[in-house]
Amino acid sequence: MYAQMVKSTGTLMSREDMSPQEAAFQDRVDAGDKIEPQDWMPEGYRKTLIRQIGQHAHSEIVGQLPEGNWITRAPTLERKQILIAKVQDEAGHGLYLYCAAETLGVSRDELTEDLLAGRMKYSSIFNYPTLTWADIGAVGWLVDGAAIMNQVPLQRTSYGPYARAMVRICKEESFHQRQGYSIMMKMVNGTPEQREMAQDALNRFWYPSLMMFGPSDKDSVHSAQSMAWKIKMNSNDELRQKFVDQTVPQAEYLGLTVPDPELRWNEEKGGYDFSEPDWDEFYQVLRGNGPCNAERIGARQKAWDDGAWVREGLMAHAEKHARRVAAE
Ligand code: BYC
Fold first, then answer.
1. pLDDT at 321
2. Cα of 53 to ligand 1 centre, how many Å?
3. 128: phi > 0 → left, psi -120 to 50 → alpha, else beta; which?
4. What DSSP character marks residue 141?
5. CB of 290 shorter than 6 A to ligand 1
6. What span, in angstroms and rounded, lies between the C-alpha atoms of 11 and 29?
7. How many angstroms separate the alpha carbon of residue 325 from the centre of ligand 1?
8. Through-space distance between the first and last CA atoms of the chain, rounded to whole angstroms
9. CB 276 within 8 A of CB 106
10. Is 39:159 a contact under the CB 8 Å cutoff?
C-alpha cells in the first residue's frame, strides 16, 4: 500500500506549488537541518522514505540468502566464521532499517506483508545465484562495494534516523567489502582453476552490480524529488561512475579483466567510459523474472509463515500483560 501511494512523488514539486508549510520544510532541508520523526513533513517525503528505507531493509534481509547458502561450504573454519559474522551483520542492518522506517508510522509487519504481496521491492542484485565460492568473494568485493558507494552519502541524508542507521551500517560494510576482496586475492593467487573461478564470478557479477545503482538518470522516476529533499545525495549515474572508477584498478590489481570491451580511461572527464548494463534485463528482474526471484520470495514467505506462532505468542503475551496492568 505504501509503495503504491508513493508513485505520486515521481515529479519534482516547484516552489510555486508549495504551501507555506512545505516551503518552510524545504528551507530547513536546504539549510542542512536534520528532520526528526516528531517534525512536520510533507506526506510525499514520508512515503518516499518509507519506500526507500523499507526497500533497503528488505534488501539487507534477502541479501543474507545468497551468502547464507555458502556457510556450510566455506573452505576453512576461519572463512566460515567470517561469513557467519557477515551474514549476521546483514540481519542487524535490516533491523536498524526497519526500526528507522517504524519512526515514520509503518510497522515491520506491514512492510513485510507489502514485500510478500509484491508491492515492495528489494535490490535486484539478490536475484542472481551464488554458484561457486568465488561468488562469495565477488559479492563482498562488488556488491558490498557498490552498497558502500551508495550508502556513505546516505549518512548525510536529511532524515535523522536513516542517517544515523547508515553510520553504523557503513562501518560494517567496509569490513564486508574487504573480506570479499581478500577471498578474491586468495583465489587469484591459487590454482589456475581457482583463478578462472574468480574471473567467472567477476564476469557474472559485474553488470548486476552496476544495476544496483538504479536506472540511468534519464529513466529514474524518483531522483529529482528525492535529491531536492536530500533523501538521495547523488544521482544514480554519478554513483555508478564513481563505483566503476574505484573498482577497475582493484580488478587490475587482482589481474582480472572487467567484462566490458568498451571500458577505457577518459582523460577529459577523469573517469572511465563503460558500457551500460542491459536495462531490459534489469526491468525483467524487477518484474520478478530474474533467475532467483521466486526462490528468494519463497524463502521470505516460508520464514514469515514459520514465524506465525512467535508473533501470535507475543501478541497473546502483550494482551495478557495489558489486561493485568489495567486490572491493577
Ligand atoms: N533493485 O527512480 P529510481 C546490501 C526501482 S543491500 C530493485 O531511480 P530511487 C547488501 C526503484 O525502487 C543494499 N529496484 O528509484 C545486503 C523504483 O521503483 P518503485 C541495498 C530498483 O529509489 C546483504 C524504480 O526502480 N541498498 O548492500 O530514487 C548482503 C525507479 O528507480 C533498483 C539500498 O537499498 C534496484 N537496484 O533510486 C550484501 C540503498 N534500482 O519503488 C549487501 C538505498 C531502482 O517506484 N536505496 N529500483 O516501484 C537507494 O539509494 C535508492 O532507492 C536506489 C534507487 C538508488 C536503489
1. 97
2. 9
3. beta
4. I
5. no
6. 18
7. 44
8. 39
9. no
10. no
| Average pLDDT over all residues of the chain | 95
Q: Ligand 1 in contact with 126 (CB < 6 A)?
A: no
Compute the distance between CA of residue 30 and CA of residue 27 in angstroms, rounded to an integer.
5
- Of all protein residues, whose CA lies closest to atom 39 belonging to ligand 1? 56
Which residue matches cell numbers 576461519? Answer: 78
What atom of ligand 1 comes closest to residue 143's alpha carbon? 42
What is the whole-number distance in angstroms between the Cα of residue 69 and the centre of ligand 1? Answer: 23
Tracing cell 508510522 back to the chain, one arrives at 105
Query: Rounded to whole angstroms, how far apart are CA atoms 195 and 197?
Result: 5
CA-proximal residue: ligand 1, atom 13 (nearest): 147
How far is C-alpha 290 from the chain's CA centre?
A: 17
Q: Which three cell numbers stand for residue 71?
A: 556457510
Return the residue whose CA atom lies nearest to atom 27 of ligand 1: 147
- Kindly report, residue by residue over 158-171, the tens digit of the pLDDT: 999 999 999 999 99
Q: What is the pLDDT of residue 7?
A: 40
Asked if residues 177 and 145 have their Cβ atoms less than 8 Å apart, the reply is: yes
Residue 81: CB atoms within 10 Å? 12
Minimum CA distance residue for ligand 1 atom 37 = 214
Of 8 and 24, more confident: 24
> What stretch of H or E contains 90?
helix 77-102
Asked if residue 10 has pLDDT above 70, the reply is no
pLDDT digits (tens, 9 = 90+) for 94-110: 999 999 999 999 999 99
- What is the number of the ligand 1 atom nearest to the C-alpha of 51? 41
Q: Is 293 in the pocket of ligand 1 (CB under 6 A)?
A: no
Distance of CA 308 to the CA centre of its chain: 26
Residues facing residue 159 across a β-bridge: 35
Any idea what DSSP says for residue 256? -
Using most ligand atoms within 8 A of CB, pick from 64, 69, 123 the residue to mutate for ligand 1.
Answer: 123
Instruction: Give 55 Cα–ligand 1 centroid separation in angstroms.
Output: 7
